[in-house]
Design goal:
The complex is a heterodimer of chains A (343) and B (303). Chain A has 343 residues and is mainly α. Chain A is 77% helix and 1% strand. Chain A has a single domain, classed as ABC transporter involved in vitamin B12 uptake, BtuC. Chain B is mainly α and 303 residues long. Chain B has one domain. Classes of the chains: A mainly alpha (343), B mainly alpha (303). At the A-B interface, helix 5, helix 11 and helix 14 of A face helix 3, helix 4, helix 9 and helix 11 of B.
């Protein structure tokens, strides 16, 4: 396979996974909330595109028929309009992203509610259970995002010719990832960001200063979910076809955890490095999976090997390098910087 | 298999798994996210014995017990103990069990491919129902699963309350530090709890294919039920797991069935939603589970 293809694939997934990993870093790295249900927020992003934007378009163009059939018709209609009218396509994309973000924030705030007061283990169990059940429901129910059949969505960049489409998407995804990165960096150096780290280190101290832990947790997971849901929306727009089975726990909860552990908790630059290392390994594995199977003469699919490999890597990191590639640095606030420059 | 029979069989298996989860939670203080895969591991042991040696799954229950136990010990010794020695946080341990779950999924997926390659029979997706027989007008699995539960409970009772090791075990579950001062080797009790947790799950896994279809990823689906059952009972009580297992197991089957009578057969696939709702309601009303309720006080006020 051509190296250009591999490179674009790597950059594309680097952008998508950076968004999710940074969102998880805000929740787990900064605030110490073990969100084992990250995949839910990504799924919500897909629902925003495949389930909501699609339905809005169906209503606007007054298409009748079942959801799957109507989305197919709308796809053709919208693609034709977008091909001649780029602004329509771009505004549809922006609207979808806004819907995804808002929906992600709302769902994030609701899904942590039952366990917001409880200790970490209960929190992790409940978030995982909710995410797993939501995945199951959207997989079995074809009315949400087409279930196991999937649903096609319009190509918001239909005005770009086929060969350049992937590059345009790569640019958009990397741009969103950059904004998310800058936002997370800024967020860390605000009173809110610092209280999150304080909460991670010692909840009782934060409580004694009159802060409400439950509220902080809800707010943080809401922000994190809003960001992660952007990744789900972008991914769905890129594939122009939403299938619930592509939002599994392994891909969107476990792998992001692996990336932030690899890069270094609470440290966005490290997280980006972790994402890059992971994505390079993953894309190469996926690209050459048939070659690997053939070379090792495996009587099974190479995806199982991928699971074993990444599982082992995660455990090795936890044991040998729990601080990750780049260690977390203390926050440099403005007064601290000024004092340093005096010396 | 009628609906009520199916519900009881399923609940029996959920109880085994939930008891396994709470046993290790009590001694090691980490919820084992790989508990579902422990069960699927048991299913694959039974499938291997069936396909390669033509051993009926009911006869391979003891083998599943032992192999499951060894898997539990392996989990503790290779994954958790090194991390606990480094004083890793609970979240780190949870991520480690999540990673272990993924490794087990990969291993079982690869093994299922290998097994179907060797035996030329499906191993990626299988069910044991054709191997079951009828006993006194009921499917045999109903008796076998109930008997397994009874023997397990009897065994646990004798072990915990009638032996010296049981006293040590209970002591180190209640207060590990104090037990250690009294000269009890907490390490042994931990190892033992992981063996028991694995072996109970192994037995459950051996019987699970009589109730539902097994794929390598089944563990990810049943883990929701296991967690719901354990939390409803109170995560740190074996008796609670027994209660919670029956409540969640039976209501998951029966409520879904009742709903399917009203809304049609398509709601049958959403059985896990029932477990999740029970879990959420428990967390909102009695977060520490059924065993945290002061039953004596309640009963006292009634009488």
């Amino acid at each position: 396979m051509a190296w250009e293809h591999i490179l674009t694939e790597i950059l594309l997934w680097f952008g998508l996974y950076s968004i999710v990993a940074i969102s998880l870093n805000i929740e787990y790295g900064y605030a110490g909330i073990p969100n084992f249900g990250r995949a839910l927020a990504v799924l919500i992003g897909a629902i925003a595109v495949g389930g909501i934007t699609n339905r809005i378009l169906i209503a606007i163009f007054n298409v009748t028929g079942s959801f799957a059939v109507a989305s197919g018709i709308v796809k053709t209609t919208v693609n034709e309009i977008v091909a001649n009218n780029p602004i329509f396509g771009i505004s549809l994309m922006l609207i979808s992203l806004v819907i995804a973000g808002i929906l992600g924030v709302i769902v994030g705030a609701i899904f942590i509610l039952p366990s917001a007061k409880l200790s970490e283990d209960y929190l992790a169990i409940t978030l995982l259970a909710i995410s797993e059940v939501a995945f199951m429901v959207s997989y079995y129910n074809p009315e949400i995002i087409g279930g196991y059949y999937g649903v096609s969505t319009p190509d918001f960049f239909a005005f770009v010719s086929g060969e350049y489409r992937v590059f345009v998407f790569m640019g958009v995804i990397l741009f969103v990832a950059l904004i998310v990165y800058l936002f997370a960096e800024r967020l860390l150096n605000t009173p809110y960001g610092r209280i999150l780290k304080a909460m991670r280190e010692n909840e009782d101290v934060v409580k004694s200063y009159g802060r409400d832990i439950m509220f902080l947790r809800i707010k943080t997971v809401a922000i994190g979910s809003g960001i992660a849901s952007l990744a789900g929306a972008l991914y769905s727009m890129f594939t122009a076809n939403v299938i619930a089975s592509s939002f599994s726990r392994v891909e969107w909860t476990f792998y992001p955890f692996l990336m932030i552990l690899l890069g270094g908790l609470g440290n966005n630059r490290g997280v980006l490095m972790g994402v890059l290392a992971f994505v390079v390994a993953k894309v190469l594995l996926t690209t050459y999976k048939y070659e690997i199977s053939a070379a090792l003469n495996l009587p099974f699919e190479a995806v199982w090997l991928e699971y074993i490999l990444f599982g082992v890597v995660a455990i090795l990191i936890l044991y040998y390098k729990p601080e990750g590639l780049i260690k977390e640095k203390p926050i440099v606030t403005k007064p601290i910087r000024e004092r340093k420059s005096f010396k | 298999m009628t609906v009520v029979e199916g519900a009881i069989i399923y609940a029996n298996l959920v109880v085994l798994l939930a008891m396994g989860l709470t046993l290790t939670y009590i001694t090691t203080a980490v919820p084992n996210f790989a508990q579902g895969s422990f069960a699927v591991f048991g299913s694959y042991v039974a499938l291997t014995l069936l396909r390669l040696f033509k051993i009926h799954p009911y006869h391979s229950i003891p083998v599943c017990f032992i192999f499951g136990g060894l898997l539990g010990v392996l989990t503790y010794v290779t994954i958790l103990r090194p991390l606990i020695k480094k004083e890793a946080s609970i979240v780190t341990l949870m991520i480690a069990t999540l990673a272990w779950d993924l490794i087990l999924l990969g291993v079982m997926g690869a093994y299922s491919g290998y097994l179907s390659h060797v035996t030329k029979k499906p191993a990626i997706k299988y069910i044991f129902t054709p191997y079951d027989f009828t006993l006194l007008g009921f499917p045999a699995i109903l008796f076998v699963s109930s008997l397994t539960i009874l023997l397990t409970l009897l065994g646990l009772f004798i072990l915990l309350y009638k032996t010296k090791f049981g006293v040590a075990l209970r002591a180190s579950m209640e207060n590990p530090d104090l037990a250690e001062i009294m000269g009890i080797n907490v390490e042994h009790t931990r190892l033992f709890s992981w063996f028991l947790s694995g072996s109970l799950s192994g037995m459950a896994g051996c019987l699970l294919p009589f109730k539902q279809e097994i794929v390598p990823g089944t563990g990810a689906i049943i883990i929701v039920t296991i967690f719901a059952a354990s939390i409803v009972g109170g995560l740190s009580s074996v008796v609670g797991a027994l209660l919670g297992g029956y409540i969640v197991g039976i209501s998951e089957s029966l409520i879904t069935y009742e709903l399917s009578l009203i809304f049609g057969a398509e709601v049958l696939v959403y059985s896990k939603v029932v477990s999740l709702i029970i879990l959420v309601v428990t967390l909102l009303i009695i977060p520490k589970g059924l065993v945290s309720l002061r039953w004596r006080k309640w009963l006292g006020s009634i009488s």
